[in-house]
# Entry
Amino acid sequence: MRINDVTLKVGGEAGSGILTVGHMFAKLMQKSGLQVFLTNDYPSLIKGGHNTITVRANPQRIYALTAGIDILIALDKKTVQEHYRELREGGALIYDSGKLKEEDVKLERPDVRKIGVPLSKIATEAGGDIFFNQAAMGAMLALLKMDLAKYDHMIEKAFGRKGADIVAKNKQVVRAGADHVRTNYPDPFGINVNPVQTDARNLLINGNDALCSGAVAAGVHLVAEYPMSPSSSVLHWMAAHAVKYNIVVKHTEDEIAAMNWLCGAGFAGVRCLTATSGGGFSLMNEALGNAGIAEIPCVIINDMRCGPSTGLPTYTEQADLRFALHASQGEFPRIVAMPGDAQEAFWMMVDVFNMADLVQTPAIVLMDKYVAESVTTIPSIKAEQVRIDRGLLQTDAQMAEAANFKRHALTPSGISPRCIPGQKNGIHVCSSYEHDETGYTSEEASMRIAQIDKRERKMRAISPLLYQPAFFGDQSSDLLVVSWGSSKGPVMEALKLLAAKGKSVRYMHIRYACPFAADTISAALKRAKKSLIIEGNSEGQMRNFIREKTGLLIPELYRRYDGRPFEAEEVAAVIEERLLK
Amino acid sequence: MVTLAELAEPKHTVTWCPGCGDFAILVALKQALVKAGREPHQTVVVSGIGCSGKLPHFIKTYGFEGLHGRSLPAASAIKMANHALTVVDVGGDGDGYGIGMGHFIHTCRRNIDFTYIVHNNQIYGLTTGQTSPTSEKGFKTKSTPEGVLEEPVNPMALAISAGATFVARGFSGNLPHLADLMCQGIQHKGFAIIDVLQPCVTFNKLNTYEYFVKKVYKLDESNHDASDKTAALAKAEEWAEKIPIGVLYKVSKPTYEDGTPQLKEGPLVKQSLKRDVGALLAEFE
# Structure
């Protein structure tokens, strides 16, 4: 009997309610004191198609999915046939016995327990087909020998505002599903969930929501965005919280407008944010350069998906690193941050807002679909640790005393005091042209060099403590795995799998490409006898960037660019093959 | 009280061609700001790129010289970030009605309280004379040596139908009238568009001062009812023989800011950045 370690997959057409089952199960597991990882796989359409949502629950923190599932809830025939082989020995298939025929659930795996439940019939009897996903939930909870009271409470919370009748019907359907399993499939299932009493509070959150929360904590006041998968949920979340937190959230006419809104808002002095994916980021490029030359702080989230062009809109990739590093013509400083999970997403968002204000330049947060949309439990965030630092933004009192104020003054650090419209004694033009210290257009050669050099110098003001890579695994090992961004999760899980075999390596997770901790990264590579980099693109973009910055070529490269995230077992096998052999 | 002298920026050399209609726009804008009593440090003049785009450097207010065609999004954001400011956007016909046309239509819909002054010379000047969206059909330019095949854009009709609440046309050959229009636009609560017929003395030999002097007439000297949308659209269609200048359309509607409760506690830029992060994260517990 396995306790408190279960992986569920639900599959069906888009719009069939699989998201509700997955998310409510994840919440139930969190409320039961377990750690959770939830991820979804869906094509770019609204109704129909083939969608799955996978949820793993375990007492240990989960960074990514591992292979294999324990329960498959199949809302259609396609889900049965495409996914039943993923079931572990003795796993259960829950399906609608009223809708799927005997041949639909013909399996080549006699060990799989087939749990037929008349889901649609139960739902219709209770008041509508719409409830049938809750019947499946009831069947699963009975299989896992879970008390329904906790789930009842969640139903009340989730559907309470829809009225007592809807709550009652949901509960009724859950019970009917559970009763059907208890009556017809009484044999014990190999896995039980026994809720754990714990004082440790955690958050169940996806990467995009973590970025949003971080931005709100950092004091964002204006969000301008045009919807694009997988970044749209940033717009939705921000819009839903806009009035509560006094944030102006504008769904602009396009991404060009969104980025130009940021230039205006940043110049006017508010912290501002946009989110997009590669296509939208392409449209933002010209205005990104405007923010660079005009020294306007702002933050851009690029939730990467498969490119080029429309690519694979709902699948993950890490192929915009080079693009983010060089986007827009000319040379200007930028911050490029690459959080590897929701916890990092929150804190790095707070940090990049401070960095953008300090350096007076745009910051790009590179996430990808896998981290943006996967929902995980992370340790509770200590809100009192949030610090807001607006750099050399001048107060009204400071400006009241200012004389001969030069917005782009050539200072030793490269950073000039910044005033904003409305303040006295600071009148200047914030210009997309090259300019002199006052902001007036200048095409004079020496001023051009001085302004380029000034902007370049600014990045050195960022404390190196903020942009160091994170190290995990065995710090004494001379075998080094390197990755960045969303590859962190699968590597962290791979380390666990290796540890179970008594094997270990050192792992370096690179969190920032700009500024780049070249010294630390170089030292780690030099110390390693063997090293391997894992990244989600075909060119090995970070590998090449590390070579450019350190002169060191990581010998081993493992790539994936099929739109799917790395799997823990896959990464563990690669580490064993390339480093541990 | 602000004076014309305070708005002068003597350190910067005005780079427009001698005789350019832009000079009158600059002077009219200064007069309008003085008349409306807007303090220089509480005013932002926003521009795109083009001959019009240089204007912020020639007036002593805060300025934002952004990208070609993208001044309206920047101006909108400046106003939303600090709605205590007076925001005046100056653009050109290529800038606002060509590359920036999408922003123009959507900005008209929004009714954010700022003024948009378009230097409409029916030609691309700074790029040395190519056709513009308002160039007349058959007009020969460097990019259309056989003559323009397209119908010109009608910015006044577009603005009225897209929902702008103050739609006016001025002529840089009539400075007092233009300054008065700009003052009205600045004082109007909502999005005000003023299209200015502004002869390009270097590249446009068709739409000259003489061309316009013969054609323009003042709407306030006719019996035009600017609150009548149908009448306004009819005036917007007048071009061939006579060209009306003045306020074509004016209506009072709630502004975008009025519909944004986030601004009730004052300008965003004055609001605290501190949030109750603990409460914020409770929804994920």
Observations:
- DSSP finds 19 helices and 23 strands in chain A.
- Chain A touches chain B through 64 residues (CB under 8 Å).
- The two ends of chain A are 34 Å apart (CA to CA).
- The longest helix of chain A spans residues 164-184.
